[in-house]
Each structure stands twice: as C-alpha cells, then as structure tokens.
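We read letters as residues; the integers encode the fold. Take this protein.
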Amino acid sequence: MPNNKKIEWFQLSQRQRMSPFPNYLSMESIGKEMKSVVGVAYKRIVLMFEENHMYLYFDKADHARVGKTVLKEVFEQPDIFIKLGKKQKDFAKSFYAFLKKNNNPTRLKSVSNGHLAGLHEEYVKRYKQVYSHYFPVLAMENYLFKYLQKYIATKESDSKKAAHYVDALITETKAMVNRQESLAALKLCTIITKRKKWTSYFKGSVANTVASIKKDNELLKLMKSHEKKFFWITRDYDDPILILRTLLSASKRV
C-alpha cells in the first residue's frame, strides 16, 4: 500500500474494566495466528487504554479486506464455523485444564524463573489458539449481515417481513446468556415467592438477606445452584464474578 494513502480509522469497540493483559494477546492473535485459521489476518490495529477503559480501532480498508475474505470462506465452506467452534471448545477445555493444574500459588512460589517463563509461554500459546478461532466470526459479521439484507430483499418485497427474516437468520438464542440468566433468576424468584418464610428474608438489607439465606440450607442450595451455573456471566477480565451477594444486590435494585 502506498505510504501516502490516508488510513481511515474507526472504533470497533469500547469496553470498561479492561487490562492490557491479556487483551494485547488477542490483537496479536488476529494479526498473526488467525491467518493459519482462515487464511487472512489484520495488518493495522490500534489498542488504547485509558485507566481501565479499552478502545479498539481498525483501519477501515483493512477490516473490510479481512471481513470479506472470511465471508468468502463461509460461501466456500458453509460449515467452517461449526468446525472452528468445535476446535475452539477443545482448545478451551485443554486451556482450562492447564490453568487448573497450575493455579497453585504455594507451589508457584518455589519454582524457578525459567519454569515460570515456560508457563507464561504456554499460557500465551493456548490463549491465542482460542481467540484466533473465535474472532473470524466478528470479522465477517457486518459483511454477512449486509449480504443477507441484500439477498432477502431479492426474495421478499415486504420490508417488515424481510427485516424479520434477516433477524431470524442472525439470531442465536443459545448465545443470549444474559437473557438465559434473567429467565433462570425469574424462575427462582417464582419458587421463593411461594414460601412466606423465604420471602421474609428479602425485606431487610442485603447483608441480612445473605445471612438469613445462609442459615436456610434448602434455599441456600437453590441460590448456590444458580450462582454455580451463571457465576461467569458478569466476568470481564477485571470484573467480579456473580456471587450470592451481587445477585441479591441486583435484585433489590430492580
């Protein structure tokens, strides 16, 4: 590309409570490792941090080049993301096993610097494996959306119906984890409201509510079951996990 060509940057994402590590690894993976996954990678990315805010910028032309190339791969291999998803799950399971095995602060204090460096190198490798198989979906999603809009428009003249069809094609209900958690929380609330003893726990402060629940083994088991299933849902890199206290705090605000 000629040096005098002006680069048109655009902001793809802005997120709070984010640290440079490991997020810079994400950008490294889509500028390098992603090429071995879908045959293309980004050339220009700017990742900025201001306190705990992260800002992600892409070169518009570069982003289009990558997105359209990935979309072309989808046309040539309609099941490509089924394959990538399976690989990603396998990588994630292996990554989790690696983290669980080495998450021992006492033992880590006694290992050599060389061993720690090796663990970090292995972490980076595994992290990039997961992310480089995940990001191609984000790379092409806007271009797939535009393609579907144009295609459906050739088949359906009613704009409202056409919009509904496009929405149905791009919506994956299983991916709506926040809605799933809300529905599960509402079902739990329904169970709780059927017992006067349990509803009485929620009339005081969050601290008193937590103390009352902890003394009631049956209700505590239900609450802990919800916590175990959805503890990760609030988790960004620097976010607290969903625990009983934060769950109750949210419910009382509502």
Notes: Residues 9-171 form one domain. The chain has two domains: 9-171, 174-253. Strands lie at 9-15, 45-50, 53-59.
